[in-house]
What does this fold into?
Amino acid sequence: MKVLGIETSCDETGVALYCTERGLLSQALHSQVELHERYGGVVPELASRDHVRRLLPLVEEVLAQAGVARSGLDAIAWTEGPGLAGALLVGAGVGAAMAFALGVPGIGIHHLEGHLLSPLLSSDPPTFPFVALLVSGGHTQLMEVTGIGRYRLLGDTLDDAAGEAFDKSAKLLGLGYPGGPQIARLATDGTVGRHALPRPMLHSDSLEFSFSGLKTAVATLVRRGLDDESARADLAAEVEAAIVEVLVAKSIAALRRTQLRRLVVAGGVSANRRLRETLSAACADAGACVHFPEPALCSDNGAMIAFAGALRLQHAEPDALPRGRAIGGFVVQPRWPLESLPAI
It folds into this structure.
């Protein structure tokens, strides 16, 4: 089965072609970073318009790379949610229209399920069950995962997600967007410890997260004034260290609470080098193993949507695969709890 995956939930247009027999055949991604950088964050209307411009050329590029004609597609998958409503409508509209025109099944995929399952595309895929840390610009969650669609929420962010904390701290420091890579880059020249930042809920028994207080502490330090460039670098290092320390501590606590020995980390922040190194060491000390997606699959991408679509379509009942029509209809869900998905 060849499944075309379309991802347009926010500020990246991703398209990929996945084959259940041969694996990932091709993928292409357009980032809108330059478009939104001048505004310091994503402008939803501009994001939607850029998806309209970019999506169909990317579809043609992916099919040409794989040497597959449109008539050779067996199904279309797109991101149904969560995300920006206008951006989601672009991908869902194109995906549903293609499914109708080609007479093949179409399916809307949960964005976070795509991220959660993306490490299964690696050369060393994890096996169920495991704890998943989903960490991105809009989400920071811990999930107990016992199978596809079998998700139990262990902890969520009470306010800002980790990616938001990176973005807002970067803006306070006068850095560009997105904030995570900018903070990480500046932090390489800094030293942890010069500035004291809180580690919110670090010592709480709860598996919940909270990062708004960290942003407020950064704002306070910036208002007081930073002496020189080295002070800015030291603050960037402290921001990164604080976020990573909380993520690692909560992840290890989740492993202990569930008595599982496997951790999967996914989402845009999973590309952070300090997080990868610190989590790998902490899991080794705890007698657990950790799996990360391939670097190219950390950001929003079409491959994870195509792959998740293929898994769900493979396990769907034949009667639930209407030719040329989306399973469940053509809808988008800007807010959509991951744990509400049906199990397969």
The chain has two domains: 2-116+298-340, 124-292. The two ends are 18 Å apart (CA to CA). The chain has ten helices and eleven strands.
